């Protein structure tokens, strides 16, 4: 638990647990489906393993999380925070300013995309989406998303499979698409992103992913 506010207000009591650094993001990852420690680390790459262990322990002691044979699972108390986290995401995308360069991370973006694949929309068999980012250091430019058998994997080295479609262009623009700031169609019209491959796959690609709820939030005029 964080430092006490010493107030009877239930907001104050809740925030003694929830306003510690990284706590809400750990909950975000659990709600997104990451349950194994290593998966949580992939969604929180700048959080140290020791601090992640500490936060998971605090959430377990508080009754928001339980450990089922090495997999962390939200309890009923933890799941009740889902609409609150969603509302924070909607508020953030509506009112927080533009993304800084330090906020852009191809590994983190593709990790989020891989767990929101709509497998019913992807063709049967294996589909491989290659990503070529033009606005990042050379070591971070090429990525692959391998989708097969209702699973998806993120690769930073060529997995050796035939590529179905290639997304070429700006990491910033793809991040904006993923946040719902612009549409796939808009990003392709302004040529910040180009999708290469068979026409039926190029057209179908956006439907392979389900955007987060905050992505559809109306922006202030």
Provide structural commentary.
By secondary structure, the chain is of the alpha+beta class. Helix content is about 40%, strand content about 15%. The protein is built from 10 helices and 7 strands. Strand 4 and strand 5 form a beta hairpin.
Task: Summarize the structure in short.
It contains 10 helices and 7 strands. The protein is an alpha+beta fold and 221 residues long.
Helix content: 25-40%
Distance between the termini: 40 Å
Major sheet, described briefly?
5 strands, mixed
Class from secondary-structure proportions: alpha+beta
Strand/helix succession: HHHHEEHHHEEEEHHEH
Count every helix, treating DSSP H or I runs of 4 or more residues as helices. Answer: 10
Overall radius of gyration: 19 Å
β-sheet strand percentage: 15-25%
Q: How many E strands?
A: 7
> Which strand order do you get reading across the main beta sheet?
5-4-3-6-7
Question: Can you give the mean pLDDT?
Answer: 94
Low-confidence stretches: none
Overall geometric form: globular
Q: Which features would summarize this protein structure in a list?
A:
single chain; 221 residues; alpha+beta; 5-stranded mixed beta sheet; globular
């Amino acid at each position: 638990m964080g430092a006490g506010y010493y107030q009877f207000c239930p907001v104050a009591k809740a925030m003694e647990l929830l306003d510690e650094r990284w706590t809400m993001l750990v909950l975000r990852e659990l709600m997104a489906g990451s349950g194994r420690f290593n998966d949580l680390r992939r969604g929180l790459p700048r959080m140290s393993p020791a601090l992640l262990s500490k936060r998971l322990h605090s959430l377990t002691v508080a009754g928001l999380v339980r450990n089922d044979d090495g997999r962390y699972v939200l309890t009923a108390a933890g799941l009740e925070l889902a609409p609150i986290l969603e509302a924070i995401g909607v508020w953030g995308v509506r009112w927080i300013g533009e993304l800084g360069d330090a906020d852009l991370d191809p590994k983190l973006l593709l990790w989020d995309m891989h767990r929101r694949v709509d497998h019913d929309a992807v063709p049967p068999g294996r589909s491989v989406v290659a990503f070529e980012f033009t606005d990042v250091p050379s070591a971070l430019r090429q990525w692959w998303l391998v989708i097969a058998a209702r699973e998806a994997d993120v690769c930073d080295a060529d997995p050796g499979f035939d590529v179905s479609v290639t997304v070429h262009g700006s990491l910033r623009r793809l991040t904006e698409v993923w946040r719902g700031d612009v549409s796939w169609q808009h990003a392709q019209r302004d040529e910040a992103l180009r999708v290469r491959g068979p026409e039926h796959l190029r057209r179908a690609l956006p439907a392979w992913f389900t955007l987060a709820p905050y992505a559809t939030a109306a922006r202030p005029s």
